Amino acid sequence: MTTTPLLEVKDLHVEFRTKSGVAQAINGLNFSLNAGETLAILGESGSGKSVTAQTIMGILDMPPGHIAGGQILYRGEDILTMNETKRRKLRGVNISMIFQDALSALNPVLPVGWQIAEMFRVHRGMKRGPAKKKAIELMQRVGIPGAEGRVGDYPHQFSGGMRQRIMIAIAIALDPDVLIADEPTTALDVTVQAQVMRLLKELQVENNMGLILITHDLGVVADVADKIAVMYAGRVMEAADVYEIYAKPAHPYTKGLLESIPRIDAEGDRLSAIPGLPPSLTDMPSGCPFNPRCPYATDLCVSDRPELLPAAEGHYSACHYREDVYQGTIEPRQEAQA
Ligand code: SF4
Prior knowledge:
Elements: E1 7-18, E2 21-33, E3 38-42, H1 49-57, E4 65-74, E5 77-78, H2 84-93, E6 95-98, H3 102-105, H4 112-124, H5 128-141, H6 147-150, H7 160-172, E7 178-182, H8 190-207, E8 210-215, H9 218-221, E9 227-232, E10 235-241, H10 242-247, H11 252-259, H12 299-303, E11 309-312, E12 315-317, H13 322-327, H14 334-337
Helix pairs in contact: 4-5, 4-7, 5-7, 7-8
Iron/sulfur cluster (SF4) binds at residues 251-252, 288, 290-291, 294, 296-297, 301, 306, 319-321.
């Protein structure tokens, strides 16, 4: 018997109409998320990962954004065809999001306790007193010391890490099934990053939430993600269980990303950055979108676009040579690098 995933994105296409043409921000995206699972969506800026989050949340600016096709199924029901009232109810209650920059996401002129309590007043119809009590409980739950005395403080009176915890408190206030965290720790220093990631993981386990972690940093996902989808130029290039991706990447782009992060077990090895830049979304290369930067590219890569297909069981890659990359038997093709 197959169970319906909590969230399923099917063949999603999102475009932006710009002065220089139509930018294909998301190009046939597919993934699914189950309860209690953490999916990391990884990619450089412009890969489409944040547009994915905004499209799921219904906060994409339209225009210039335009959903050109596909489905986003929440418990089997397409969010994109729901009426606005139902979609609005879904957002914030069943599906919630935390953003990179807590300072601009929080209202600077309202006490943080008021902002948390508002979730209970608006969505649960609670009175001020009980809503404030719930806000204090949530502040304690996300690890804000002296919560009772700080409920009337304003966002600027908290450190970056504490503000991020307040935003997490708002996002989880109504026990969502799905939490989307868009670069939640980018603005924080490394120690605080680890604390916030630990908190997110704890809350996810407690509430059996599906967590989508959007990041450009392969280093932050190793301890928290169950599976990873690597995005490039609006497409998933590789998707697999987290251990598989780290141990045996099956796409040259992921392999390049892994070789560019420092590893304690590879002392003395030189780090290498992926040469070149991601393609312009208004002027995609033919064939594989990674071919101008790929050391293994052949004529086939320039003429034919590879589909996302299995390289091993449960491990998908959009590369013509996915099995060779997975086995580690592929060699760079010098003439293709010239
Ligand atoms: Fe590189 Fe070709 Fe694979 Fe694309 S299909 S990643 S260009 S080897």
